[in-house]
Specification:
Layout (H helix, E strand, L loop, with lengths): L7 E4 L5 H12 L3 E6 L2 H12 L5 E5 L5 H15 L4 E4 L14 H29 L2 E6 L12 H21 L4 E8 L5 H10 L3 H7 L8 H12 L10 E4 L10
Parallel strand pairs: 1-2, 1-4, 2-3, 4-5, 5-6, 6-7
Helix pairs in contact: 1-8, 3-4, 4-5
């Protein structure tokens, strides 16, 4: 028996990267998965690849920043598997540039996806979870929810907001059986990191030098932390945020 046997999990933005790693880890532990992407083709491909490994997986396209599409995603889970136990708000984007010249539309789009979309997803999940008095909502934040970084005005604003949102939702829902937590990774090797390096003026060596453990984190390490937070082992954890950062936040030197 896996740690998530027969539980139903929705993971937004899960066709690739951190979301895909979390979805696969949950599936290995017995969960039934709804894979999501804005692209129906990417969602379907990811679901097919996971089903080929013997897992129960359903594909659902949708833009999480649109409340009606977040709601539809929850409905897909209920229709396919009869319920919803775990919701991971992973979908996210970035916009890097000097604050003085950062396009306001780009700033707002990051907030729409990374913060407002998380609120919409959390609402959709809670509408299913609260009536039965059980569930876990996990927000995928960032170390930049705790510190600032030049040229990341939009991203840092959204990720700082996630920590506050997590606390508020937990205050409202923990007593009704729904835990809300935030998982804050540092630099993880993903396609998004490769894109960010092209505009963010940093290199692999910069990340390795700044991180006390001397390396990037792995997708598996983030997925392992997400598994813990979703499992019964974390049954008394709500409203807090867990940093997976190789010591980044503890280091204050040059």
């Amino acid at each position: 028996m896996g740690r998530l046997e027969q539980r139903v999990a929705v993971v937004t933005g899960s066709s690739t990267g951190i979301g895909r790693a979390i979805a696969e880890r949950y599936a290995r532990e017995g969960a039934r998965i709804v894979v999501n992407s804005r692209s129906a083709e990417r969602a379907a491909q990811a679901a097919a690849e996971m089903r080929a490994k013997g897992w129960e997986v359903t594909a659902a396209a949708g833009d999480i920043s649109r409340p009606e599409e977040a709601q539809r995603l929850a409905e897909v889970a209920v229709k396919a598997y009869g319920g919803l136990d775990i919701w991971v708000n992973n979908a996210g984007i970035n916009a890097i540039g000097p604050s003085l010249t950062l396009d306001f539309k780009d700033f707002m789009r990051v907030l729409e996806v990374n913060l407002a979309g998380v609120f919409a997803g959390s609402q959709a999940a809670a509408r299913v979870m609260l009536p039965k008095g059980q569930g876990v909502i996990i927000q995928i934040g960032s170390i930049f929810g705790e510190v600032g970084m030049p040229q990341r005005a939009a991203y840092c604003s959204a990720k700082h907001g996630l920590i506050g949102l997590t606390k508020v939702l937990s205050n409202e829902w923990a007593g009704r059986g729904v835990r809300v937590v935030c998982l804050d990774p540092a630099y993880i090797r993903t396609d998004l990191d490769v894109q960010d390096q092209s505009t963010g003026d940093y290199s692999d060596r910069d990340v390795e030098r700044r991180t006390p453990m001397g390396r990037y984190g792995t997708l598996e390490e983030v997925a392992g932390a997400a598994l813990f937070l979703a499992s019964d082992d974390a049954s008394y954890i709500s409203g807090s945020h867990l940093t997976v950062d190789g010591g980044w936040m503890a280091y204050g030197g040059w």
